[in-house]
Every structure is written in C-alpha cells, then in structure tokens.
Amino acid sequence: MLLLACVAWMTRGQSYYPLVDTGKIWSTRFVIEQTWACSDFKKFEGDTSINGFSYKKIWVARDAAMSVWTRSGFIRETTSRQVFYKSSVDFPETLIYDFSLQPGDSARFWGDQSFYYKLDSITTTTLLTGEQRRQFHLSAPLFNCTDHWTEGIGSLYGVMEPASCYWVGGTSGLLCFTEHDSLKYHDPGFSSCYVYSGISDQPPGNKFTVMHNRKSGKLMVSAKETISGNTVIELFDIYGRRLYSGLLKNEKTEISLAGLNRFDGLVLIRIRSGNIPVFSTKMILITE
After folding, report:
1. Alpha carbons 198 and 173: distance in angstroms, whole number
2. pTM score > 0.70 for this model?
C-alpha cells in the first residue's frame, strides 16, 4: 500500500510537486479597470476534517507585513492530483485544479458546466532557484483566453484564481511565490511582492457614493438625492453569489462587513429601485 501511494505521486519518472502544502506563501495582485487596486498574501496551514475529507485551512493577509491573517476557506488535494476548494463549511466544494490532465483533455472548473478548459500542452519552466517544474498551458475556447499552471505553485492568475480568464470586473496575477522562505517566483514587472493603489471604479456624475472604511469594517453608501422607499443595495461575489441585500436610507446607509469575512476581494455592488437597476460598481473590500 505504501508503494502504491508513492507511485500515485510519480509520473514517467518525474516527481510530482503537490500544490496544497504548508511552508508556502503566494502574493497576488488584483486590477480593476486597468488600475492597480491591491494585493494580498495566502497560505495553507492547519488541518481540519469536513464531511470525511481532510482539508487545509486557507489564510489571507492584506497588509505588507503579513501581521494579521484571516481564514478564507478550505482546500484539499487528492492523490489523483485534483484540487478542491470550499469557501465555508456550509458551501459545497468545487474543483479548481486538475494536474492529472494530459494534452488534449478538457475539464470544467468552479462548478460551471456551461463551458470548459482544454489542456493544450505541458512544458517545463525554471524557477528562480534553478528548479525545474512542469507547466500546464490551458485555453478556454469559448472565451479565447488562456491560463498557465505551474506544478506546486498554481495559476499565474493567482493560486486561488485558476481558470479565471473569463471573469469580469477585473483581473489578477501572481506576484510572488515563496516556499520555506525561498523566493521561487517573482513577476519581473514589479519590484515588490506587495502593491496597493486604489479602491473602486465609480463613474462620475452618479447618484450614489460608495466608500469603504477599513478600520470600522463598514461600507458607507450615500445618496445624492431623495430615493424611493423600495431602493435596495446588493453585494455579489465574483461567482454571482449574493452576499448582502438590504434597503437604502435616504441620506446614508452603513453596511457591516463582519459577516462577509469569508468572501475575499472583489465584489459587485448593485443598487436597484424595485426591479430597475440604477447604479453598479466594483470594489475590492479589505477589512482590518
């Protein structure tokens, strides 16, 4: 049995480098409307059992010093080299990586059955330490876009952003990857592993102002004119799940983000009067 377990992690004489492991830190940059918005750090640490499966906890730090880490879901990797993600204990898991794919194979990720990614080729890339790792080159034919996964590191969009080239509202990219304090990947377009420069893309002349107070953990929504009593504000994550829905007040509404901590990063903010949309914007929410 031990021999079979070892063979499961070997392919054609090459060692397989699992993605889900401790001692690793990824930094990812997020971009909204061509503006560098922010970056964060992620790591997998601590074991937990959910529905009979063993997961690592996902931790996120949003400050350059990585002084405060908050939990942001759960992740596990199987011996068949598939990686599954759960945003919370109550949500079903979803496939986000499959390193068992061979050129010509196709797969669907993030629970979306409407289209697929195809593995075009597998090549070898050299890390900053001189190590050789296999790199998986995928394409999404329906959207004419690509993704690139490095074994043991993950997507060049970010470790938790694989198969995301079709996502709307912004883009992301892997800034740095370290393993046991050794820097193995660094985007050459950036001098630092941390960037921060902006918050939202609200158009000028709109009827609403949305501000995020990081210290209080609240979203402040102000109306510039009298609004009807059935005006509703809604927050959605990048997967279309509604995180919040509530009525707006005439002058100012405060929304506590305390219950949204497990939803990380970019959200869509939409305001509607009855069933008629009157305002929308995108914002990266960061809580301290």
Report:
1. 16
2. no
Chain segment 52-65, per-residue pLDDT in tens: 999 999 999 988 88
Condensed to tens digits (0 to 9), the pLDDT of residues 80-132 reads 999 999 999 989 999 999 999 999 999 999 987 778 999 999 999 999 999 99
d(CA 153, CA 233): 38
Q: Which tokens sit at 278?
A: 């009157």
Per-residue H/E/C for the chain: CHHHHHHCCEECCEECCCCCCCCEEEEEEEEECCEEEEEEEEEEEEEEEECCEEEEEEEEECCCCCCCCEEEEEEEECCCCEEEEECCCCCCCEEEEECCCCCCCEECCCCCCCCCEEEEEEEEEECCCCCEEEEEEEEECCCCEEEEEECCCEECCCCCCCCCCCCCCCEEEEEEEEECCEEEEECCCCCCCCCCCCCECCCCCCCEEEEEECCCCEEEEEECCCCCCCEEEEEEECCCCEEEEEECCCCEEEEECHHHCCCCEEEEEEEEECCEEEEEEEEEECCC
Domain architecture of the chain: domains with CATH: 8-186 (no CATH), 208-285 (2.60.40.3080)
Q: Shortest CA distance to 285 belongs to which of 255, 259, 257?
A: 257
Higher pLDDT, 71 or 267: 71
Q: Which of 108, 128, 56, 119 is nearest to 85 (CA)?
A: 56
Q: At 105, which amino acid appears?
A: D
Rg for the chain, CA atoms, rounded = 20
